[in-house]
From TrEMBL:
Chain ranges passing through the membrane: 30-53, 60-84, 90-110, 117-133, 139-160, 172-191, 203-224, 236-256, 262-283
Keywords recorded for this protein, A-Z: Membrane, Transmembrane, Transmembrane helix
One Pfam match: EamA
Domain EamA stretches: 7-132, 142-279
GO cellular-component term (any): membrane
Protein name, entry field: EamA family transporter
Family designation: Belongs to the EamA transporter family.
Keyword Membrane listed: yes
UniProt cross-references to SUPFAM superfamilies, sorted A to Z: Multidrug resistance efflux transporter EmrE
PANTHER family xrefs: EAMA DOMAIN-CONTAINING PROTEIN, INNER MEMBRANE TRANSPORTER
Topology term for the membrane: Multi-pass membrane protein
Broad class of the protein's primary localization: membrane
Length: 291
């Protein structure tokens, strides 16, 4: 990877880390409703990407399902997690999505899980247990569960996406945004009644978070990331994205005053080692082709 592209990937990971910290602050400290925040994020992204919605893709139903899993199912539930657990914990727990993707690929697509991946999955799961096992510290079980569900939703959507007809990454982002507005808005009305008024007390926080998540993350960073994936093998790009959780841990400590304990750091090492094993075996050459 060229120095320029490495710096681009580092910048993308930094944007993701900033978004994690900003989301945690907006929801946990400023009291912004998480589901309403997610709905607003996708509404703005859908407006920006609306020219990419045409022509209408066929078949539409599988695309909508994938869009809901990767949009509302992932980000909506993830925002709930940000309101309950530290940003650094969220960033580490999200990494279990890579082993989950390998498992879903085996169950749904019939892909074989090599021994290297099995070791990586076991290490990642052991790390998750270490991160969550804190008898003497406060840890929201609901928040951790929400993050793991969000990771599973994204992993399942990523696997099902392989069955879709060819679609550009930005068109997928456009349909993900459009499909996710409505269930998130409905969920906000049902589970956050009257909380829309809370936005009026923190208009700058709400507006800034929506703008950053929609434009800097969804439109700009994801576009750059997909371009790198087209240029380089996934086995090279995926391990380097581990800069994201590491940056999030640092920013969480500096900006939010988070203080991870020794168990967290031990679990983090196990999770990242396991994820690296899974990611670096994801595109290993075989006798016939490179996967």
């Amino acid at each position: 990877m060229s120095r320029r592209d490495f710096l681009l990937l580092a910048a993308i990971c930094f944007v993701w880390a900033v978004n994690a910290v900003v989301s945690r602050y907006a929801i946990a400290d400023a009291g912004v409703p998480p589901l309403l925040l997610s709905a607003a994020r996708f509404a703005l992204a859908a407006a920006v990407l609306s020219p990419l919605l045409r022509p209408l893709p066929r078949p539409l139903a599988p695309l909508i399902l994938v869009s809901l899993l990767m949009g509302a199912g992932h980000f909506g539930v993830l925002m709930i997690g940000y309101g309950l657990v530290d940003a650094s914990v969220v960033a580490i727990l999200l990494q279990v999505g890579i082993p989950m993707t390998a498992l879903f690929s085996a169950l749904i697509l019939g892909e074989r899980i090599a021994a290297r991946r099995l070791v990586g999955i076991a290490l990642a799961l052991a790390g998750i247990v270490a991160v969550l096992w804190r008898p003497d510290a406060h840890m929201s079980g609901l928040g951790a569960a929400a993050v793991l569900v969000a990771a599973a939703s994204l992993a399942l959507g990523s696997v099902l996406m392989k069955r879709l007809a060819a679609i550009s990454p930005m068109r997928l982002q456009a349909w993900t945004s459009l499909s996710s507005i409505w269930p998130l808005a409905a969920a906000s009305l049902a589970f956050e009644p009257g909380r829309a008024a809370d936005v009026l007390t923190q208009p700058l926080v709400f507006g800034g978070t929506v703008l950053f998540a929609s434009l800097a993350v969804t439109v700009i960073s994801h576009t750059g990331y997909y371009r790198l994936l087209r240029r380089y093998e996934a086995s090279l790009v995926s391990p380097l994205t581990l800069m994201f959780p590491l940056m999030t841990v640092v920013l969480g400590q500096v900006l939010l005053g988070e203080r991870p304990d020794a168990a967290f750091f031990a679990g983090t090492v196990l999770v990242l080692a396991g994820v690296a094993l899974v990611a670096t075996s994801a595109a290993r050459p075989t006798a016939d082709h490179t996967t």
